[in-house]
User: What shape does this take?
Amino acid sequence: MAHHQIVIVGGGTAGITVAARLRNAAPSLDVAIIEPSEKHYYQPLWTLVGGGLFKPEESGRDEADVVPYGVKWLKDRVETFDPNSNTVTTASGEKVTYDYLIVAPGIQINWDKVKGLKESVGKEGVCSNYSINTVASTWEFIRNLKEGVALFTQPAGAVKCGGAPQKICYLAEDHFRRSGVRDKIEVIFTLAGPRLFAVDKYREVLEKVAQRKGVEPRFRHNLVEIRSASKEAIYRHMDTDEEIVIKYDMIHVTPPMGAPDFVSSSELAGEGGWVDVDKHTLQHTRFANVYALGDASSLPTSKTGAAIRKQAPVLVSNLLSNMNQEPQVASYDGYTSCPVVTGYDSLVLAEFDYSGQPAETFPFDQAKERFSMFLLKKFGLPAMYWHGMLHGRV
Ligand code: FAD
Assistant: This one.
């Protein structure tokens, strides 16, 4: 049985960022990360991979290269939590005990919640930016479509980066226009929700973007089945339960997502199966030595890497205070950000907090589409991620 002072479950965006910050703050800490994957991905790039601007492999690095110096990497998968005995059990059967636990295994993609999706994704016009294994198919099908119906979906419930389903739709539309086939393609964006974006300031702009591009949003449409043989997408209307069938020539699916099963079935779970933490301190509501951040946490904000950038310093400050038996005074305000790509040279940089109020970084109106913000997304943010955030510097 291994023991570490601090055990982090998940070496994705949240796990690595928080590990780096812990080591920077107190190099003598004994920190271990349990993470099964050999590769670490900067997933926000997948929008641009789907849009043909990067190759899939440009979004990844070896996990071994991002685990901070001095942090132990246990290449394994956690299967169960026993917070009453400060123990996690891994797939290989090992029990790892801890003084403090940080839970950051991300969100689970539930491909099988749409009938026929698992079998068809990546083939015959069905694509998705939500996996490294299928993201290349998005660009393949966008590039090869010369006429017909291009369909884009957004499911009910939480997804990572709520604006991402729209981004790929706008990129595709821009590509069709630039390559001279736009008038032969109908672009449809279907979503289970009732509006394009949660925050009014950005929603109003995005409604105009969709209108200008001739992209017709169909609200309250929840994708339930893909019939790939007949190229039909089957929806249930969220209010009337009516079945709606739309024929497609290509379809980009944003799959349903949810709390990871091993979290939702554990004692750490709260409502919806997420790790139940205080929305300001990030400390677990029942187990004082447990914290969570990122997509698997119950934090009621839009699930993004940008949010994690602001959550990580709060978590580290409070955890160190807890270890020193001092009051936990750091507070997370729900900050999150969604760079909504609206074309190959334009972007709306949405930033807001728990109150739904814009919390913008730049001294100009970020609801306006800008080329400079597109360049930030394409070049600035990836550099900031790999060289700053994962080192606990920004
Ligand atoms: P992840 O980064 O997903 O990491 C979770 C880690 O936990 C993984 O490495 C996984 O292998 C590991 N894990 C899973 N199960 C276990 C287990 N049982 N035991 C141990 N480890 C486990 N965010 C933005 O800020 N801006 C954007 O523009 C943006 N665009 C996006 C576009 C797309 C297409 C996608 C897919 C995401 C986008 N995001 C964006 C969201 C962002 O990538 C996520 O919010 C962020 O990666 C979440 O970090 P995380 O650490 O919680 O989860």
Observations:
- The mean pLDDT is 97.
- The longest strand covers residues 95-103.
